[in-house]
Design brief:
The complex is a heterodimer of chains A (about 575) and B (about 120).
Chain A: E1 7-8, H1 15-18, E2 23-24, E3 28-33, H2 39-52, E4 58-62, H3 67-75, H4 81-86, E5 90-94, E6 102-104, H5 111-124, E7 128-132, H6 137-140, H7 144-161, E8 164-170, E9 188-197, E10 200-210, E11 219-225, E12 228-231, E13 247-248, H8 253-258, E14 263-264, E15 268-273, H9 279-292, E16 297-301, H10 306-315, H11 321-326, E17 329-333, H12 341-355, E18 359-363, H13 374-390, E19 394-400, E20 420-429, E21 432-442, E22 452-457, E23 460-465, E24 467-469, E25 472-474, H14 476-563
Parallel strand pairs in A: 3-8, 3-9, 4-5, 4-7, 7-8, 15-19, 15-20, 16-17, 16-18, 18-19
Antiparallel strand pairs in A: 1-2, 9-10, 10-11, 11-12, 13-14, 20-21, 21-22, 22-23, 24-25
Helix pairs in contact in A: 12-13
Chain B: E1 7-13, H1 18-34, E2 39-45, H2 52-55, E3 63-68, E4 73-76, H3 82-89, H4 95-124
Parallel strand pairs in B: 1-2
Antiparallel strand pairs in B: 1-3, 3-4
Classes of the chains: A alpha/beta (about 575), B alpha+beta (about 120).
């Protein structure tokens, strides 16, 4: 079994990912770059993170800047180097090489440098060392042969000590570094680049070589801001992120119904339309509805400021200021031309990592074409979509289509990347322009194939069923008129029905009354029959009793006669 | 022109290496010959006192530092090149010795300059 190369993590966002763990432990790494590209900052972050995050003390040997300058320069990042120095976790030594003071008379070596380095490392038991920039030695000593052999010895010495070292060097014309340091430091070489293209600056980092480890070989954009360096690692090229069947509301009830419940969580939605069709309003509804549900929402706006958005939202009946204040809605406004495409990507990556939104809106993505060619923008957007998918973020991208040509053609051609495509279209008829919304595609959901009319009022957005009449689709005032006619006819019919019902009810009443009177007569007749019956019975009873009496009287007399 | 006051010289060495020993020997020899009675030599072994390297910014070994008279001069190497050492220390020489040394010095300087020029043209090519 092969053992893995031990690595020292840098603690720099994204860099540990592209190096698959950090810099090689116990070996020197060369960081090359032109002036101002961030070498010293990277080296300093490596040391400070080593102390604060990984409990490894560090020594910073500076050949150019004084210790005080360094401390001041990184104070803006929130690094308190003086405190670390006092705690004996960091040591900054400045080695001055001044040519004018030195005359060379005979054989010498650079043992003094070794002694100083050794002393510094031992004094705080350092595991990490930075030499920035050792090329300064070349300006101090003219005997290159001695210098180069001593450098060779130095890097072997550093390896021997087991310290993880960063060596910085300026970019050279023919060689990677001006003095060819890559000859001696070849375990790991990282190149920093700061390029200006079309007036827009981009910072890029590339791992030129890394012995004994897999590493990303592409150029990665990185940012330097108030938090230091953050590298944007290209998100997984494999499409194997986990997916969810949960639904996220679109903010418009009828649209949710059209899509069978809402957008799938983690899906990307394209919302395209010509100018003025209401894309931003739909997007605002989206973030508002989600913020109301407690989902954190991020709105990336390239054309409007947050204040504008709040005001415009009010005009369609939404109060989003409240969500902004509660922290559930965050706006990020910047012109698309303010930075290069990679910088935008890096910035958004950082934002979603720190803010962790559930939903994101990018409005409009088509302005990015101002910062790059269509091909570059498409590449950037596909990476952005991958980035959102990997974090399970549901994202809406609005796209401005130039009117006139085929509306189902996006300038950038991203329609195949997205899961759902909503098209807003103006429909002009009878002197009116009405808006229609189509669901052009929606992967994985059964969606209605019928177009809906899209109405923006100050009470909100509604999708209304279009009216199908003999003339075809009716929208706008034609629809309203047709609906009114339909309603009128309906009303008349109902009225008719009502009257007939009333009539029948009245007749029923009459009949019931008749039934009642007949019933009374019958009852009376019944009673009469009853009473006749009882009278007759009584009469018969009387007759019977009379006869009985008579009989008894007659019988008694005879018996009496007989006896005599 | 330096006054004939005390020369304070500090020689930084690292252990008893050949170069270090040679430098010490050479220095003592030059001082006895040219600065008799006007100098003081301090030999600092950085292997025993590494912290002292920082004060005078010592990188090369051996390094000779002339602290007094000001300004500070540093001379690195085993000091085998006598002319260079003396020029570097800005030492006033005895007259006859001076002329000899001056000629020798001029020759060696001219050779050096020529070498540098050819180097430069080589590099530019």
């Amino acid at each position: 079994m092969l053992s893995n190369l031990p690595k020292s993590p840098t603690g720099i966002e994204g860099l540990d990912e592209i190096t698959d763990g950090g810099l090689p432990t116990g070996r020197p790494t060369l960081i090359a770059g032109n002036a101002g590209c961030g070498k010293t900052l990277l080296a300093m972050e490596f040391l400070v993170n080593g102390i604060t995050k990984y409990k490894e003390n560090g020594v910073f040997i500076s050949f150019e800047e004084s210790a005080d300058d360094l401390i001041q320069n990184v104070a803006s990042l929130g690094y308190d180097l003086s405190k670390l120095i006092d705690k004996k976790q960091l040591r900054i030594d400045q080695i001055q090489v001044d040519r004018t003071e030195i005359a060379e008379t005979g054989e010498y070596d650079l043992e003094g440098l070794f002694i100083r380095l050794d002393y510094a490392i031992k004094s705080i038991n350092a595991k990490r060392v930075v030499l920035d920039t050792i090329e300064s030695l070349f300006s101090g000593f003219t005997n290159e042969a001695i210098l180069r052999s001593e450098l060779r010895r130095l890097f072997a010495w550093l390896k021997d000590r087991g310290v993880t070292a960063i060596i910085t060097g300026e970019c050279g014309d023919a060689t990677l570094t001006r003095q060819g340091l890559e000859e001696y430091v070849s375990d790991c070489v990282i190149l920093l680049d700061h390029r200006i293209v079309n007036q827009i600056s981009t910072r890029r980092m590339r791992i030129v070589k890394y012995r004994g480890s897999t590493h990303g070989t592409n150029e990665y954009p990185f940012l330097i801001d108030k938090d230091g360096i953050s590298v944007m690692p290209i998100t997984s090229i494999k499409l194997d992120h986990t997916i969810s069947s949960k639904r996220i509301t679109s903010g418009i009830a009828e649209l949710d119904a059209m899509l069978g419940g809402g957008f799938y969580e983690g899906s990307n939605i394209l919302l395209s339309g010509t100018a003025g069709t209401g894309k931003t309003n739909v997007a605002t509804y989206f973030v508002n509805a989600n913020a109301e549900k407690g989902n954190r929402s991020l709105y990336i706006a390239f054309e409007e400021s947050p204040q504008q958005m709040v005001r415009n939202a009010k005009s369609i009946g939404l109060d989003i200021q409240w969500h902004i204040d509660s922290g559930l809605l965050k706006f990020e406004s910047s012109r698309s031309t303010s930075q290069g495409l990679e910088m935008h990507l890096a910035k958004f990556y950082k934002l979603i990592k720190s803010y962790k939104p559930t939903v994101v809106v990018v409005d409009p993505m088509t302005t990015l074409v101002a910062s790059g060619s269509a091909k570059e923008v498409r590449a950037m957007l596909s990476r952005m979509m991958d980035m959102f998918r990997a974090e399970n973020i549901t994202a809406i991208f609005t796209s401005l289509t130039e009117g006139g040509d085929n509306l189902e053609h996006t300038d950038i051609g991203v329609s195949s990347f997205v899961d759902t495509w909503l098209l807003l279209r103006d429909y002009e008829v009878n002197g009116e322009r009405n808006k229609l919304m189509y669901v052009l595609k929606s992967r994985g959901t059964a969606h209605s194939n019928q177009v809906r009319e899209f109405v923006i009022t100050d009470k909100g957005i509604h999708l209304v069923d279009v009216y199908l009449g003999e003339e075809g689709i009716l929208t706008g005032s034609a629809r309203v008129a047709a609906e009114a006619r339909f309603n009128a006819r309906d009303a008349i019919r109902r009225n008719d029905l009502f009257i007939r019902q009333q009539k029948l009810a009245y007749e029923k009443h009459v009949t019931e009354a008749e039934i009642k009177s007949l019933t009374v007569r019958r009852d009376m007749q019944d009673k009469q029959i009853e009473s006749f019956k009882s009278i007759e019975e009584k009469r018969q009873d009387d007759v019977a009793s009379d006869q009985a009496l008579l009989k008894s009287a007659r019988g008694k007399g005879r018996n009496d006669h007989a006896k005599k | 022109m330096p006054k004939n006051s005390e020369y304070e010289l500090r020689l930084y060495v690292a252990g008893n290496t050949a170069k270090s020993m040679l430098a010490v020997k050479n220095l003592k020899h030059y001082c006895e010959e040219h600065l008799k009675g006007k100098y003081s030599i301090e030999v600092i072994d950085l292997l025993e006192n590494p912290a002292l390297a920082e004060g005078d910014q010592i990188l090369a070994i051996p390094t000779l530092v002339r602290r007094v008279p000001a300004p500070i001069r540093k001379i690195i190497g085993d000091l085998s090149n006598e002319e260079k050492v003396l020029v570097g220390l800005d030492i006033k020489l005895k007259d006859n010795l001076r002329d000899n040394l001056k000629d020798k010095l001029e020759d060696s300087l001219r050779d050096e300059h020529k070498a540098k020029l050819t180097d430069q043209t080589k590099r530019a090519a």
